[in-house]
Fold this sequence. Notes:
The chain is mostly beta strands and about 210 residues long. Helix content is about 0%, strand content about 65%. It has strands at about 15-25, 35-45, 45-60, 65-80, 80-85, 90-95, 100, 105-115, 115-125, 135-150, 155-165, 180-195, 195-205.
Amino acid sequence: TYPCAPPALPAQAAEFDGSLILTGQGVQHQKPAGDASMEFNLLAGSASLSGRFSGVYKENSQAGRMELELTDSLLDFRSPYADISVGDISPQFSDYTLSSPSNENGAELNLRAAGFSFRPVYLLLTKADEAISQYERKLYGASVLKDDLPGGFSLGVGAYRATDDKGSLAASTAPLKTPAEISTLGVKAEFKAAEVFSMFSEFAYSG
């Protein structure tokens, strides 16, 4: 007799969970308003997709219908070799180079291979505001990090550039100051010994 082949294992099914919360309030002689929030998480094998959205919904005085204004949003994809985050993100390289800057929204990609991590990032730091003569400011750049170097070392290099968009304000409201352009280069190194001792150093230059 021939040995029987092992039974085929069923493919792992995707898992989904989420929530939706709506709250509202109405005050006499005032238009109704409320809050809305939604979260979800989709897991399929070693990859996952999650999202978080929240905002305020209120009646549009002109259209006469309820409209939602997003105040927070994040879409996050994770996998063994690549991560993508879009929305309200907080990128982090080091304290002096890039450390979770306040921003309107952005996108970050993290690619991992052979012990390297490559992370390009784009951020809309501030929106244009004619009332206070504020330019739209954007940041873009990338970092490369190498872990598991000999002796327990890791080394990272990051370069970023923040620029004001001169065309984001009308000439009549543009401030007298020249739009800013700031470039930052950072290097960080870390040494760890058997989970009992670590040492971190950082260098950054801006101009």
